[in-house]
Amino acid sequence: MKTTILLSLMLGLSAAAPLSAKTVTAAPAADQPLAPGPASDATSTLRPFAPGLVVTEYPRHDLQANEKENFYVPLEKLGQPIGDKYIVESLDPWKWETERNAVASGFLEIEADGDYSFSTNSFYDRNLLMIQGEVVCAFRDGDDTVATIPLKKGGRVNILSAGFVGGREASGIHIRWKPPGQSELSPIPPRLLSHVDDGSVKPKQVEKKGFSRPNDLLAKHLITVTDDFIVEAYKNGTRIQDSQRTLLNEIFGATAERINVDVRPGDWLVFHVVNNRLRWEGSKYFAVAGMLGENDFGFVSDPASEAWSVCDDPERVRDFIRRRDEGTEIRASPIAKPWGEGDDHMRQNAGAGFPGKSLWGGGASTWIKFVAPKNHPKPTALTAVKTAPLEVITELESIPVKPAAPPPAPPAPKAMLTPTRWPVQILYGMYGSGDKNADVTLKLKEYIEQKKTWFAVTPTSLGIDPIPYWNKSLWIAYVKDGLRHEVRRYENEHVLAETFYGPQDAPELTRWLPETRWRAEQGELQFHADHTATGYGFEGLPQWEALAQNKMRITWADGRKAEYFFDYTWSSFREEGNAKATFHVMQ
């Protein structure tokens, strides 16, 4: 009863009787948008409805002094408000000041009879949702919890969403619903949210000098080119429906798409993209253009921008998709071997002045996120390059041209036990959990760059414990062979220096293997740059092919094929299913 009375006061309504546990009935419809004012003058004053919900913020409560143990505060104990009230027009998401508690309250219009499902999501699910004074989604009831209640057409019902200190204002609270006739959860349309307008509450002003306005469009639709394809795409944690995606072209398995979604500052997009690394020598491609008009770009993919991040860990993908800032510390990377036709197809579909670049994560299946910042600079379309007429090119081709000298052959590599061919630079190492992290870069440089030895992810090995008694993880960013990589290792896991120095993919193994020599019981093998191998005891010239960073195939003169796997130090390899056929590197 206390909660119902409190909710009524927050909404500026008179106290209502407790609701039935079976049915929640909408408030009576009104031809004119009028509602009672505050309880003190409810019988004498009528005021119109206005769009959006009213947010009231409260200071950190004494119950939240130790935020590691307690975040929840009963609504009736929140105390006196702090700061000015303001209006939020959407619940996907709505945000408040990080060190405060907050309540967004008002009305939700019900347009049809039936069962309505609701789900809420925030940092560690520290929020609650109430409809007509009844708790629908409780505090910490789980991000996947979906509550269903019956509602009747005919007007507006009271709605209240509460967030608490420790709920991470940066991510906010996302509220989704599934009204009758809808198959999936989706954001509540802002047009259905309202509050009693007494003229004292204004929309929250977030615009600053040099910043884009929150309602400025960054894109009216998207153009993507992917080698191979997008599995799913998401906006603000919700899957983009198939009806919004149009296949523009399919090029031997690669795809170009148009995705009909608008993008504004504060929105985020996630693309699950995949590539078959066994095709076209492992080349891949992914690029995006946020389109405002013909050759008019609101944003483009760019691995140099902090707005683009990636996730390669399936266990983290759920939060990476649903939470705006989750995983954004892992930046997207340029593609070592991009599909050569990708840029051409982007220019064909997005515009000849497409100024973006392709990017990817660390695996063949990866999730790529774009978080639209408030002050995102508008890309400038490139000037289209005019090509010479065909007849001019024909005349030029008749002029003798001295052929370019072939590039010099790479020097023969040493064994992986002394991997001078693969220099590694540690950029940074962060050890901890949540926002409690310690910089362990210098310690990692000692283990990996200087000693080239293994170590354990423990406070003892890393020399610091940023958050005792908590499970922690280690993030490592490093550059190898000119390419940036990021990896995550978990508490008590052993980290091997060889995993940083060894080949990271099939092209690197292809460059590393030539002129190395290997010995087995059958004899010796030496690999050459022309993909042949020679050795005592083997007839003909076997052909070799790198399949992954630690896997290759050898095809013998008689047509027999066998696949081999390297160990974690790349100092031996063995035939799949035949442990006796093991070759060891010769120093």
Describe the structure in your own words.
β11 and β12 form a beta hairpin. Strands 1, 2, 3, 4, 5, 7, 8, 10, 13 and 14 form a 10-stranded mixed β-sheet that branches. The chain has an 8-stranded antiparallel β-sheet with strand order 33-32-31-38-37-36-35-34. It contains 8 helices and 38 strands. 32% of the residues are buried.
At a glance:
This protein is mainly β and 587 residues long.
Total domain units? 4
- The parts where pLDDT drops under 50 for at least 5 residues are 1-45, 205-215, 385-399, 412-420
The number of helices is: 8
Q: Care to count the β-strands? A: 38
Report the CATH architecture of the largest domain.
Answer: Sandwich
CATH class of the largest domain: Mainly Beta
Instruction: Please tell me what the overall shape is.
Output: globular
Radius of gyration: 30 Å
Structural class of the helices, strands and pairings? mainly beta
Beta-strand share of residues: 35-45%
Percent of residues in helices comes to 10-25%
CATH topology grouping of the largest domain: Jelly Rolls
Largest sheet: 10 strands, mixed
Mean pLDDT, as a whole number? 79
Compute the separation of the termini in Å.
81 Å
Distinctive features:
587 residues; mainly beta; Jelly Rolls; 4 domains; eight-stranded antiparallel beta sheet; globular; disordered N terminus
Topology:
Blueprint: H1 2-10, E1 34-36, E2 46-51, E3 53-59, E4 86-88, E5 100-110, E6 114-121, E7 127-131, E8 134-137, E9 147-151, E10 155-163, E11 174-178, E12 186-187, E13 193-196, E14 202-203, E15 221-227, E16 229-235, E17 238-239, E18 245-251, E19 254-259, E20 268-274, E21 285-293, E22 296-300, E23 308-311, H2 314-322, H3 342-350, E24 365-371, H4 390-397, E25 424-433, E26 436-439, H5 441-450, E27 455-456, H6 459-462, E28 473-480, E29 483-490, E30 494-495, H7 498-501, H8 506-512, E31 517-520, E32 523-527, E33 533-534, E34 543-548, E35 551-555, E36 561-566, E37 572-575, E38 578-585
Parallel strand pairs: 4-14
Antiparallel strand pairs: 1-2, 2-13, 3-4, 3-5, 5-10, 5-13, 6-9, 6-11, 7-8, 7-10, 11-12, 15-19, 15-21, 16-17, 16-20, 18-19, 20-24, 21-22, 23-24, 25-26, 25-28, 27-30, 28-29, 31-32, 31-38, 32-33, 34-35, 35-36, 36-37, 37-38
